[in-house]
Amino acid sequence: MRRMEGQKLGYIKSSVFRRLFLSYVLIIVLFVAGFCAWYLYSWRANYRAMARKSCLERGNALCTRLDRQLLIAQALCNAMNSSESVRELYQLAYAEGKTVDSMQLYRVLTELKRIKASSGSFDVYAILLGFEGDKRLYTPGTVIALGASVNGPGRAPWLGVSTAAELLSLYGENNILLNKRFWIYADEYSGQVGGSSKGTTLVLMEESALTGGIEEAGDAIGALEIRRQSEALYATGPLDGSGEVFEVASLIGGGISYRLQIADGALEAPFPLTALVPVAATVLLGAVFMAFAYRFSRSRYRPIGVISRMVAGGPAAGQSGDEMGDIVQGIADLIGERNGYRERMITISPYASQGALHQLLNGSVGDAQVLREEQFWELRRTYFAVGVVDIAMPEAPGASEQRRLDARALAAHACRQLADEERAVVCSARDLNTLYVVVNSDDEGDMETMFYELLPRITEALDDPAIAVTIGVSAPRTELEGLRDACDEAERALENMLTGGRGSIYFEERDADGARRDFDFPRDAQKRIARDLREGNREDLDAFLDEVWEANFHRAMLSPEAVRQLVDELHSALSGALRDVSEQSTTHIRAQRVREPATIEEIFDYYRRLLAGAVSAFQSEVAGDAGGEALEKEICDYINANLLNPDMSLSGVADRFGVSGKLVGNVCKNTFGKTYLQYVRDCQIQQAVKLLEDTDLPLEEIAGRCGFTNLLTFRRNFKTVMNMNPSDFRK
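Structure (tokenized):
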């Protein structure tokens, strides 16, 4: 016990131990303090960044929501401007001063109803149309009589929260629709592009469409201002600069934009109570590391203490006052040849000079993905080179995986048989068809000879004429730290099979002096290919590829770099042509880039097959489309011929043509812009309106002539479309 206490006391008295332990403590304290400071700063910065990102996202969502409503309103105003029925009404009643008949009025009201319904938005409450100086407002389904003439807002487009009566200067009107507050978008009615203003169109939207989006933004957005250039159209509050202000341009144009201000305090980080937990854990972990540092310092000092006692009788016996100096001097007196130091250094020197020892110690051997750890110890000689062996089966692309594994194993066995006492060979699989081979020798000139011996050995071992073996080789190296670079160099050398073909050995080298560095390629290649694909000219596509081949490979030899550029240009032209043709059809074909090392003949064969398949696919689609258009025309003609037949139904039309009811509905939607039932009903009501105006036939007979099975169904559908009963309409 006394001996152990004496040893502990000796540790504390030793200046070497104290410096060792305090150095660990200083490192731990600096790490803990630095980590805590970095963590708190990062936490606050991340909080502000995430809070700002959230505010921007919510602000952009609000702008998107408002923009969607404004785009709908703008589209409705444009639809009223382009309506032929409205234009005829204005021409008849206001330009020519004639009396508007009920049929014309019905068409206009129905057109406004259709325009409003086309918005598809529940936030659009109503649309209004008024002509300058007129005392009427036209709305979907009805006409509002006014006590005063309509006056426009004075500027267009107009945007804001108001009432229609206030906006149009219709004071004293008691109509509920005109006196209710809406979010209003108003624009001029001109009746044609570039025409003068003839009236005003208003889109009345629920105020909640505006205020609801602002409420959803919550405390993220402090103020919103809708501007047209420098003029404020609407604002929820002043943009006083207390928070960050950002602006989003509106898609409706006209200089309209949204300016939003992030609310005060939205970016302020609260006191980080939760963030203190990792800080406390880090401090506690630092204390634990200090305890381990003390034990570690003792274990590291123990050999020094033993040596100190061996050379000087213990730390207390030092004469110079420098404890470490005394120990070093004592060690220097004991070192000699018999301790084996020189012998061990000679043993590990080859690995130290080649960097292998360093890679094994720092654990980076696995990163090379070329050699296993135990294979490093086989590379004792000065020089090494890397080869990439490609084993291709061009005549058997569907070869089984097991066959490829067997071929790779035979190639690796043939490589290892080349090793002897003077040189080493190690192998490692890269993938199913490729093998890394590293050769090691003290003779730099032997590197190239070894690979020339490898190729016939591998070919003989495989003993299969369908298999082509190609090798790419790196330049000799001495430092194993450059193993990864050597592998990349060998792979680049293997790519030279592009022009040289398979079954050879390639070393990375510069272009030959006699090789061309430019290539010939038609400027209009993409247009030519796209045209031939549309017209199905397979012979012209083959002729185009033959033209490129003849211009670049029969007349002169291209450099490898020029060939790669030619392949890139050809791929770009083919991809662009396929994309152009696919955009105009439902058949989509893409050209995949050839990734594995391949010859130029294999690449051209691939593109020939690709274009042949594309021609067949596009021609099949064209044939199918022609038959489909004829069928659609027959369906539409049949429906128009039997509109007033009460026995015609959607299922009956589908059964007649042997198609589904969904297909018939899609044909009506695409041709008439309405569903089957809407189109038939509107046509029947139009016929009923004509009979009510031109004849005195009873309602029962009119219902039967218009395709309704009973009077009740006729009344219900007529009121739905015309907003009044048939008898009232006749009066």
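Residues 163 and 181 are 5 Å apart (CA to CA). The chain is about 55% helix and 15% strand.
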